[in-house]
Design goal:
Order of helices and strands: HHHHHH
Shape: globular
Structural class: mainly alpha
Strand content: under 5%
Number of domains: 1
Number of strands: 0
Helix content: over 70%
Length: 118
């Protein structure tokens, strides 16, 4: 049973990765938005969403970039704070939250549409 669960999750991750690579609306995001989104979900403890955004960071060549690394670290802190307190610390954290929420919404809509639930 556990093997089937892992295979199903892997299939979903592959499909979403293809979405990220081809979806024009996600490609229009600023270069460092995915650094913030990945860091935020890392801080929140959501490995799947963090890894999906990380995949996009790799595709864009942002990984290892000092600006991306700083944005990522700040977003981890924002995500950790949000997970503990249920709110943003400041305006910058709120902007990260909005980007992360938009990303999550697009991913979930893609999954639901692909599964036949519209």
């Amino acid at each position: 049973m556990k093997q089937k669960y892992i295979s199903t999750n892997f299939g979903i991750v592959v499909c979403i990765t293809l979405l990220l690579a081809s979806n024009k609306t996600l490609s229009d995001e600023s270069r460092y938005d995915f650094c913030a989104i990945s860091g935020f979900y890392e801080g929140m403890g959501d490995v799947m969403l963090s890894n999906l955004a990380l995949t996009k960071m790799v595709d864009e060549g942002s990984v290892g970039n000092s600006t991306c690394n700083a944005v990522y670290r700040d977003a981890i802190s924002a995500g950790q704070y949000m997970a503990r307190n249920g709110k943003a610390r400041n305006r910058n954290d709120n902007e990260i939250l909005l980007k992360a929420t938009d990303f999550k919404s697009k991913i979930y809509r893609f999954i639901l549409n692909g599964s036949g639930y519209k």
